[in-house]
From TrEMBL:
Keywords: Membrane, Transmembrane, Transmembrane helix. InterPro entries: DoxX (IPR032808). The keyword Membrane applies. This is DoxX family protein.
């Protein structure tokens, strides 16, 4: 019984983490593909001025796709392996973002928090509480 409650608690925690990540990256990705670089820089995304606008839009598309991948495959139970893969991709993006911010003497705390949540989802959905596909 205790193991089942632990498993249920982990499953709920993973869903909460997936939704939080999807919201954060979905909003961030949408802004990157829909706003000019100057507007993004004014909003605090100062890194965008270091990259070509097409690169910023590519990052936005990747974030949007990852946000979708965190929720839909698991919710629909269609190719649920895509959920931990999306979380792994976001963790990698956050490692790269952390390196950028440290190199530019900026705080990487938000990136590290998002990395930890993404790594938790990847670990949980790969190893501890994978979602089974529909049969």
């Amino acid at each position: 019984m205790a193991n089942n409650q632990h498993s249920k608690g982990l499953h709920i925690s993973l869903w909460v983490a997936q939704v939080l990540l999807a919201l954060a990256f979905g909003m961030s990705g949408f802004l990157k593909i829909s706003s000019p670089v100057e507007k993004l820089a004014e909003m605090g995304m100062t890194f965008v001025t270091s990259y070509d606008p097409a690169t910023v839009q590519f990052i936005g598309v990747a974030e949007l796709l990852a946000a979708i991948g965190l929720i839909l495959p698991s919710a629909l139970r269609l190719f649920p392996i895509l959920t931990p893969l999306a979380a792994t991709g976001l963790a990698i993006i956050m490692i790269l973002a952390t390196q950028y911010h440290v190199a530019h003497s900026e705080s990487p705390i938000a990136n590290l928090v998002l990395f930890a949540i993404a790594a938790f989802v990847a670990w949980g959905r790969f190893k501890k509480a994978p979602i089974q596909p529909k049969k």
